């Protein structure tokens, strides 16, 4: 394509200003370039840079309008369309247009696949809408992508509670306790284990404490003492000694000074 000299000069000046993040000057130069833009390719190039500027400025209304205008001009590549879809989600969200943002995110995940964070956002939306089955599916997909954040685990816990599916609730609680090693998860998990009929026989209690210890969860002295007692009740004197000896040595138990 052959561009007019006037368009090229104005567009190049806009590009230089844009790269320097001097957006006010860039917009001014783009207005000048737009007056010399004859082809859709030229008009599309102008609008594409406007999208970049308005979205970078968090000028959500103009960002949305420019994306719509760029698409109306046509000639938008697949990669650029994907970028526009993701920018639209951010712009709708920033503008407080929640319904549009949610619909855009759903469409984006369907089209392009979602990140762990995006899948967690969708899962939270489904929990809020009481669509628990869909929420569970999306939260599990989020964890499969990256289990490094507690959000999807919390969504699962909420969904299973709402469904009164307590076996899956405690199964998830155990996974979260081991993954994040925080009292938020392992305290209720231990309390649940203590309520199990076979806890006093030792098997459930030992399994809980062993799993938490193996995961690097810092148990309190009283929890370690309980673990030792559980081991003793099972006749596992070596395990009991290993767990309880440091407590006696430090004087926490047994009256050592």
Q: Termini, distance in Å?
A: 89 Å
Structural class: mainly alpha
* Strand elements, count: 0
- Following the backbone from N to C, one meets helices and strands in this order, namely HHHHHHHHHHHHHH
Identify the overall geometry: elongated
Strand count, sense and barrel status of the largest sheet are: none
Estimated helix fraction: over 70%
Our count of helices gives 14
User: Taking Cα atoms only, what radius of gyration do you get, to the nearest Å?
Assistant: 29 Å
Amount of beta strand = under 5%
Average pLDDT confidence is 90
Uncertain residue segments:
none
Describe this structure as you would to a colleague.
It is a single chain. The chain is mainly α and 257 residues long. It contains 14 helices and no strands. The longest helix has 17 residues, at 40-56. It is elongated and about 90 Å long.
